[in-house]
Amino acid sequence: MGLRYQPLAAAMTVARASSKMIGGENGLITTLGNDQPGFDHDRLGRRKGLLIEGAATNLLRYSRDFSNPLWERNAGVSVAPSAVAAPDGSSDAMLLDLPGGADGLYQNVGSLISGDVYCFAIWMRALSGTVDVTLGGINGPSSHNISLDETWQRVWISEPASGTTRYPKISAAISNLPASVLIWNGQLEAGPAPTSDIISNGIPASRAADNVTLDPADWFAQGAGTMVFDLHTAPAWAGIWRIVQLYSGSLNDDHLDLGYDSDAGQLRISLRRDGVPIVTQSLYGVLSPDTRHRIALAWEDDVIAVALGGSVLKTPSGFAMPRNFSNIVLGSFGGTDKHINGYLRNLAYWPVRLSDARLSDLSVV
Questions:
Q1: Is the entire prediction scored with pTM above 0.90?
Q2: Cβ–Cβ < 8 Å for 228, 242
Q3: Are 168 and 155 spatial neighbours (Cβ–Cβ below 8 Å)?
Q4: Which burial class, exposed, middle or buried, applies to 4 when counting CB atoms under 10 A from its CB (0-12, 13-18, 19+)?
Q5: Which sign, positive or negative, has the C-alpha torsion 216, 325, 323, 270?
Q6: What does the alpha-carbon distance between residue 168 and residue 127 come to, in Å, rounded to a whole number?
Q7: What values do phi and psi take at 318, rounded to 5?
């Protein structure tokens, strides 16, 4: 991730009370230690950005060991070790042979809340050529067709949990044709889209939240400034998530907060001074899932401006900006909740409020 001024890179801190799995520069899944920033890469080794995620739990057990009895198989379905390297370069990938039809591999999960949305993700590839498989089972019979070739890909579905037995399942129900596929690390978690890989064994396993902060030292000018965020959004989302928060002693005190209300499809600004709400405004800037966006945030007395896609949206005037911001949090609500679950590709900062024309230019991808 590049930053406009070098002091910003030095001022950034990532805190996370667990390990985290991301794509490495060699294209393989790798494990980071506690507090290591999650700069993720694709399978070709191209950097995707800093992945900022909330806490998550893989509700499946033995997420890589599909031969474990907790992974149940219908008649005619077989699971065996594979000589093909897994996405992490290990020998943990397994070969799944499906006879065609609804018979498949599944794991019963009884702790889901009926009506809540859950996501089932798994790494898969065809043993040879191309094949179609079916995923489902969170909300009744499997109904999602997935096409695979000989390249590893992490495929996923999301559904509301049914009120009966829930069993994330892999079959060939839709194509009704036999299929031989390689599989690695199944993951079932709450939410509409998968987060980074979490490996479980005999019990569900969890990953802690990322808390990404900047220390506003001598590089930061109080009272006026501009930040430009180059983001790649999550594949899906729910509720309100945060882009940046600048605040004094606590989030209930003086603050400037930029977030996104995904249910309403609107960017949202909140400004407090002396603990009193001054501005709470929806700015009608629509973000698309799984898409790169540039968002410019600029502030000074009497105006907060947000630019997206070349359009500049502004608050009404009639206020003075706080001049005591001592905390900057990126991509979450105080590092504990409402995470972006996407990528911060770049962040630029200017110690002045840039013109509307400049904001417009900077907000175009």
A1: yes
A2: no
A3: no
A4: middle
A5: positive
A6: 22
A7: 105, 30
